[in-house]
Amino acid sequence: MLSVWLVLGAIGLLVGSGMPACLLPFRSLLGQRLTVLLAVTGSLLGLSGLGLAIPETTPLSWRIPWFLPWGEFAVTLDPLTVIFLLPVFVVPALGAVYGLDYWKQSEHPDSGRRLGLFYGLLAGSMAMVVVARDGVLFLIAWEAMAIAAYFAAMADERNPEVRRAGWVYLIATHAGTLTLIAMFALWHRVTGSFALTAAAMMPATMSGALFVLALIGFGVKAGLMPLHVWLPGAHANAPSHVSAVMSGVMLKMGVYGIVRVTALLPAPAPWWGGVLLAVGAITGIAGIAFAISQHDIKRLLAYSSVENIGIIAMGLGLALLGRSYGRSDWVSLGLGSALLHVWNHALFKSLLFLIAGAVIHAADTREMDRLGGLLKRMPWTTMLFVLGAVAICALPPLNGFVSEWLLYIGLFRTLNPGGASAMAAAAMATVGLAMIGALAVACFVKFFGVVFLGTPRSNAAKHAHDPHAKMMLPMVALALGCVVLGILPMVTAPLLGRAAQSWTVLPQTPPQSIADLAPLNWISFMGTGLFGLMMAGALIWIVLSRVRGVRKAGTWDCGYAQPTARMQYTGSSFTQILVSLFTFLVWPQRHEPDVEGIHPWKTQFKSLTLDTVLDRLVTPVFTLAGQFLPKARVFQQGQTQYYVLYILVTVIVLLLWAAMGAQP
Amino acid sequence: MNNILIHLAVLFFLPPLLLGLVNKTKAWFAGRVGPPILQTYFDLAKLVRKGLVISNTTTWVFRAGPVVTLATVLLAGLLIPISSFDAPIRFTGDLILFAYLFGLARFFTTAAALDTGSPFEGMGAAREVTFACLSEPALFFALLVLAKASGSLSLTGMLHGPGAGFAMAAIAPLVCVGIGMFIVLLAETCRIPVDDPNTHLELTMIHEVMVLDHSGPLLGVMLYAASLKLFILGAFLLHVIVPFHAGVVWMNWPLFILEMAGLAIVIGVVESMMARLQMRHVPYLLVAATLFCGFGFILMVR
């Protein structure tokens, strides 16, 4: 029980962490330190609570009735909750420490206190979303989270681009919440209460409707294609530590929602899993294709989050298929990989966003093609970036590989013996995942090469430098997490296994543990071996270059007299072939005036990638609506008499309707 | 134990011979005498003894490229079974590690190329990562077919097939996979019609252009790693196209070396008879490989 109290205390501290600073002056660094201290204390409190809760075999619950007419205050800590709470208590705390240097209150007096307040509220409400076991409490926490994220992301509101991204986010998140309200209303109608406890049998159409509503409502938050419209803009324009929290943790709240609702619904139909596998594969491929075509480092990372959410959705889809077909191995591997990927993505994506923040801090631009050669100026940041990039490309020996490996094994296990439909779905997903992996390598080699390697393309990039300890240490901690989970993945297996069991218990087959299905020890062994081989190679190299001596010269330039930094391959040129292969999806805009004359003088080339869904579908529809809907303003006269009249008319109409209904 | 030692010996020492055989075949077709078959060994010995010239622009990433590439390719070589013998390291799911080790090598080779800041090397790196995106689906379709046909999830089990050998129904899919994987082999090891290992015109190359700035031992490591990759993918392919073994167990080693030499000669023949494709047509070839492997899968599960 103590663990529940600790977690609730942590939530209280996180929510309140920004308040004391509001009583102190605008520029007070003391205020910001106090905010961070409270947030870190709260997170440590929460982590200790989780430490106590992990060994517990039964879920810990606490409930009291409250003053609202519906629902009650009910919270529970079970393995699923613990898994989603861990990133909530780790990433925001690290981000807050990073923010001490990145968003100094003395430099941002107009937004510093507000950012602190809503940052804490965001972290606290996310924790509340995960522990809530009542629909009403859940929705309140959900809305608090959405609003807090809006204000935290809008810290730089003077910039019109930021405001636009904020509006898109606000509209999208409320569309999602609206769907969730519909889902919980339907839930209440079917089960008779708002309590989030496993539902008894219900008609298949009803559970199907609940599933679809949950998929849409939570999918908006998670960023499943084509509901991802808000994600790139909001992530790119928020302060980097807020982007880290939004991408690393807040997106996972959408995933949590889908996991929780599917856990509560009775036996799923096979099409649920099929839909999730297909949506996941499409989200993954489209997400990484958009990521590849970006010029803005943070937009690139945001689209790559969409891709990773796709991978998580594929894991969930496999688990759902396993539940429909009574295969506990698919459930263990699918859900295990999805949940492990939730952790992994929280680690490496937060790391990469913090690194992007360090780059922006140092070079003052998000434009990839203005950067370059940062490795020599920011050696430690680059080292961490390599770890993060290798991890996010799911390459061995880091953590990203482990979760995708589990997913692959699960997908391959659908072959023997498998039903034809499950097998076809899984085969498509396997090949999709392979393609996503190769595209991710292309995407992050581009990021690495253009931003960190070569020579600087602008003056700003020339004078960059590594950030100080307050920004460095959180990044080191996250990178360390990537290495540890990659080398010692077996430590996660017991908790993941229990989470899979708390998600579902199949009556026909006994649960199978992840460690039995997938030899994690071998991965650990091979990872260590790979590290060892690389270290040995590096050692031989060092000795060899000492003995032999190395002569330095310029890069081979074919004898050209004056090579310049601008002749390097840019991000756009690096991905030109790939983008042209994905034209049907990405739809890049190119402005290339004709070259005239034998000796053409100055000319310009510009390429731009819009978001296909947002800029070509949603925005035109909203613009069109904006042209026609103002006619409805005649009803909004702003005079009280009219509104009373509306009420009167409505009541009369309702009375008439009731009267007609009463007569048979 | 002996077989593991032989596996290691073959893995370490045979690959450069394959490049020599390919070149000899090409020379024979062109009516030249050509370099000796052992030329690659001489080249490697010479490169290792040479001094180093490194670009000022480069950093540790440039030097890490060859080191990581060699480490990953060697590790992948321990996962692949040779002929009728089991791989030294085998476990459930090692096929994914096998595929992703090449991904790690690709990450660092292309990063090392970009580290020089040269547009040529950028070009090569861009092509390398792009074409990998198209050959990866083919490889995974092939792995799906093999996993389905053998009922195993480790490379050793998959490539050896079920105890009684592959079923009759698996023959048509395996033929498709064989064709698809041969194209993947040509693309991944940078042979004609995808890439030309001989030309030194930077605009038209993939692999060669990425190693323009590597010199001395570093170039030697890249050359050796490239031959290892050819050997490993070749050993993979041989399981699919000649799934037969000699009755006497030890005979399989010389038989394997002969088969491997035959494959190198076939590659040499293909390289001699075909022209290199235009760079913008390479994706079609790789999509064709994916289609072959994909149809193989459909035939397998029909």
What does this structure look like?
The complex is a heterodimer of chains A (664) and B (302). Chain A has helices at 2-16, 19-22, 29-53, 79-102, 112-131, 135-153, 160-191, 204-222, 231-237, 240-264, 270-292, 297-325, 328-363, 374-377, 379-392, 399-413, 420-452, 459-462, 469-487, 493-503, 514-517, 520-548, 571-574, 576-581, 583-586, 612-628, 640-662; strands at 60-64, 73-77, 550-553, 589-591, 606-608. Chain A is mostly helical and 664 residues long. Chain A folds into three domains: 1-199 and 223-258; 267-512, no CATH class; 612-662, no CATH class. In chain A, the strands form two sheets. Chain A has a two-stranded antiparallel ribbon. In chain A, helix 5 packs antiparallel against helix 6. The longest helix of chain B has 32 residues, at 119-150. Chain B has one domain (2-301). In chain B, helix 2 packs across helix 11 (252-273) and helix 5 (94-115) runs antiparallel to helix 6. Helices cover 69% and strands 1% of the residues of chain B. Chain B contains twelve helices and one strand; from the N terminus they run H-H-H-E-H-H-H-H-H-H-H-H-H. Chain B has 302 residues and is mainly α. Chain B has helices spanning 2-13, 15-30, 39-49, 60-79, 94-115, 119-150, 155-160, 171-188, 207-210, 216-241, 252-273, 282-301; one strand spanning 52-55. Chains A and B meet through helix 15, helix 16, helix 17, helix 22 and strand 3 of A and strand 1, helix 4, helix 5, helix 6 and helix 12 of B.
